[in-house]
Design a protein that fits this description.
The protein has about 210 residues and is an all-alpha fold. The protein contains 6 helices and no strands.
Length: about 210
């Protein structure tokens, strides 16, 4: 049996119902005369508005922006479950009389169970969608991390090669400069460094200074 809170909520929703108001209209969608369509393959019933469903579906697609076929399926399922939830709620309202009391308790309880079922199914599809995106993002972060590690390794290799080349060049320069000439003593490279620096300044510094002046 439905709780007092559920009955009260459905009485309030009954005031907002846009379904059939006449007895003939109620009979047309009653459980005994037409399948409620709350189970099995999804389809729009004859008394429902297809444009309203299309608006709901497009709204969810715009909100969640599916990028893959799987995401599209989950978003479309969300639209269907939400539509079925609204249908179940509407059929509950049909079970109420003008005073807001339940005329058909068995059918009311059935529709109430379907309402809860489709609410849960909606949130399950939403949860699956968010979980799918979270896993995809983890994979992307992992790939980006691997790419960064690869680039860092390549940079370290280039730096090591540059240092080795610099050391080799420095060794060649030392061996050339420190080589003893006939009749002369060898001069340590460290002692020649200041002289070389002044020479380079003399060659490159003064022209640059004249140009700036």
């Amino acid at each position: 049996m439905p709780s007092e809170a559920q009955i009260a909520a459905n009485r309030a929703n009954a005031q907002l119902s846009t379904g059939p108001k006449t007895e003939a209209g109620k009979e047309a969608i009653s459980f005994n005369n037409l399948r409620h369509g709350l189970a099995g393959e999804f389809h729009i019933l004859s008394w429902e508005n297809e444009e309203e469903f299309a608006t709901l579906q497009l709204g969810l697609r715009a909100e969640y922006k599916p990028h893959t076929v799987t995401e599209q399926i989950l978003v479309d399922r969300m639209a269907q479950y939400e539509w079925l939830r609204r249908r179940a709620l509407h059929l509950q309202n049909v079970c109420l009389n003008a005073e807001g009391n339940i005329d058909q308790e068995k059918q009311f309880a059935l529709y109430l169970r379907y309402q809860t079922t489709h609410e849960r199914a909606f949130h399950k599809s939403l949860s699956d969608l968010l979980k799918l995106r979270a896993e995809k993002r983890k994979e992307e972060i992992g790939f980006e991390s691997q790419e960064q590690k690869k680039k860092l390794h390549e940079a370290r290799v280039r730096l090591a090669n540059a240092r080795a080349a610099h050391l080799e060049l420095d060794t060649d320069i030392r061996s050339t400069i420190e080589a003893r000439l006939p009749g002369h003593e060898a001069i340590p490279f460290n002692e020649l460094k200041p002289v070389l620096s002044l020479a380079l300044e003399e060659v490159f510094g003064k022209p640059a200074a004249k140009k700036a002046a």
